[in-house]
Amino acid sequence: MRGRKMFWILPLLEHLIYLLSSFLILPSSSILCVLFSFQPSAEPGSFAAIRRVNGGGTPDRTIKVFPRFVGFSYSKDQKKKFQPQMIDLEGPYRLLYCSSKGDKEGVTQEIEKGVSPNLADYDKRTALHLASCEGCTEIVDLLLQKGADVNSIDRWGRSPLSDARSFGHEEICKVLEEHGGTDPVGLDSQNPCYVIDHDEVDMDDKTLIGEGAFGAVYLVKWRGTEVAAKTIRSSVASNPKAKGTFLKELALWQGLRHPNIVQFLGVVKSSDRLIFLTEYLRNGSLYDILKKKGRLDPLTAVAYALDIARGMNYLHQHKPHAIIHRDLTPRNVLQDESGRLKVTDFGLSKIAQEKEFCSFKMTGGTGSYRYMAPEVYRRESYGKSVDVFSFALIVHEMFQGGPSNRAESPEAVADRRAYEDSRPSLSSHVYPDEIKLLLRECWHGEPESRPSFEKIITELELIQEKLQKKAVGTCCSCCIQ
Q1: Same domain for 300 and 406?
Q2: Is 230 annotated as a binding residue?
Q3: Is the domain of 141 the same as that of 235?
Q4: Options 103, 154, 307, 327, the catalytic residue
Q5: In 3D, which of 382, 373, 374 has the Cα closest to residue 329?
Q6: Separation of alpha carbons 372 and 277, rounded Å
Q7: Tens digit of each residue's pLDDT (9 = 90 or more) over 213-252
Q8: Structural domains counted in the chain
Q9: How many Cβ atoms are within 10 Å of 468's Cβ, its own excluded?
Q10: Strands 195-196 and 264-269
Q11: CATH of the domain at 331
């Protein structure tokens, strides 16, 4: 009798949820899954969760857990649909709950009982999906050791790696990729606003303008405008890990907006290759400028240094996580038609969460040796100050007219800087005293002793003001004579 009364009020509950969902900030196509504990037959220990599913079909993370439940779905733009479902915490589904909560002991117990590590819920989401979504690195490691399918696909077509990327769990992404994990979610699903139709880009009439970390860079026309097309080599595109790095660069770049950062325009997806489009800066790179002009006058060098520092300060203060460039070189600094410098090429960048500043370890030769900080070369922990070190070497080149120790190989130079504390000479009279002091601080051997880009900007602005006054005074003296 009680059960019949409970089901009698079900339509009223459905309408109540519809009214409540009208006040939630959700897309019109979103589904609000609400789970109640009104079923009289529900066993103690069963659990439920409220979950949002966004318009693109990406499952949001678990919000709240109840002791027992029956669930149904209601969508504003489709007919109501009732889907009762029971999950018993004392049964095999306890594996999913423990995985989502990071309960290593619970996961181990369930697997030892014989529960399959590939057990999935109604949405075909496995324990590995849940652990990847919630950032439970230990559970991900454990499940993979126990034979979990690294590329299991849920009802939204997402793999565990798709979830880890969506929620920014970089360490888990790395673990999944090392075990052969792939991300089947298409570019148009991840970033629909930035996907460009291949027919809109004239790739037949292209001009090679450079080589990037993953492939060639061409000058092409898109919607009548000249843009730079950065391609990814087919050999890289066929490598899931390398392709993942390329997609991470896309996700990183698309949200950046600053006068001293090269503007990302979109990504072109074709059947055989992936292509970035960015604004085209016809004046070339700082490397090209120094190669052509040699030593820059102090005012120009300081102005250029300010452009780079402002762009880098924007990256380092990026929210919610700072961005470490890791490959700041003269080739990765471009000049627009107005003479302003812009930082580009984030192919080796790392989204650095605060906890990672002191824990991330190099696994390979990331970055260019000639501009590499000592701690990076030594494969030690590092943080944002590696970019400050590279910046100092670039500023030195602007005053000097090129890199020091040109006869040595870049790796030999990096080795001496890392193990002999070698630094470029500042004996020339072309360096203002304030610049000498700033450079020594920026390429200091102790990373924590290097200034932030915010402080560097303040120092450079004072130096610029002093140089401008000196230039005006010199000009006036000449006029008087």
Answers
A1: yes
A2: yes
A3: no
A4: 327
A5: 373
A6: 28
A7: 667 899 999 988 999 998 877 766 667 666 666 666 676 7
A8: 4
A9: 13
A10: parallel
A11: 1.10.510.10
Residues 55, 102, single domain; the answer is no
User: Peptide bond before 320: cis, by omega within 30 degrees of 0?
Assistant: yes
Q: Which two tokens stand for residue 135?
A: 């950032």
Q: Which of 247, 279, 311 is the last residue of a domain?
A: 279
Strand partners, 186: none
My answer on whether 393 and 319 are in the same domain is yes
Cα 175 to Cα 119, 143, 219, 331: the distances in Å are: 20, 12, 37, 32
Separation of alpha carbons 48 and 36, rounded Å: 8
Q: Which residues pair with 399 in a beta bridge?
A: none
Band (27; pLDDT cuts 50, 70, 90): very low
| Residue 103 belongs to domain spanning | 94-181
Q: Of 44, 75, 106, which residue constitutes the final position of a domain?
A: 75
Q: Rounded distance, CA 14 to CA 17, Å?
A: 5
CA neighbours within 13 Å on the CB side: how many for 84? 10
Please list, residue by residue across 280-310, b when 16 or more beta carbons sit within 10 angstroms of its beta carbon and e when fewer do.
Answer: bbeeebbbebbeeeebbebeebbbbbbbbbb
89 is a domain residue: no
In a domain, 216, yes or no: yes
Residue 82 lies in a domain: no
176 lies in the same domain as 195: no
Residues 145-165, mean pLDDT to the nearest whole number: 89
Going by their DSSP bridges, the two strands 274-279 and 264-269 should be labelled as antiparallel
- Residues 6 or more apart whose CB falls under 8 angstroms from that of 153 comprise 124, 159, 184
Which residues does 439 contact at the CB level (< 8 Å), separation at least 6?
392, 395, 396, 426, 431
Catalytic (active site) residue 327 = yes
- What is the per-residue pLDDT across 348-373, written as a single tens digit (0 to 9) for each? 565 554 444 444 444 334 458 999 99
The distance from CA 430 to its chain's CA centroid, rounded to whole angstroms, is: 39
CATH code for the domain of 163: 1.25.40.20
> Which helix (H) or strand (E) segment is 104 a member of?
helix 104-112
Same domain, 274 and 305: no
In this structure, the answer to whether residues 17 and 141 fall within a common structural domain is no
Helix (H, G, I), strand (E, B) or coil at 53: strand
pLDDT at residue 69 greater than cutoff 50: no
Helices (H), 294-409: 298-316, 374-377, 385-400
Is 353 in the same domain as 227? no
CATH number at residue 217: 3.30.200.20
In a domain, residue 10? The reply is yes
For the whole prediction, is pTM greater than 0.85?
no
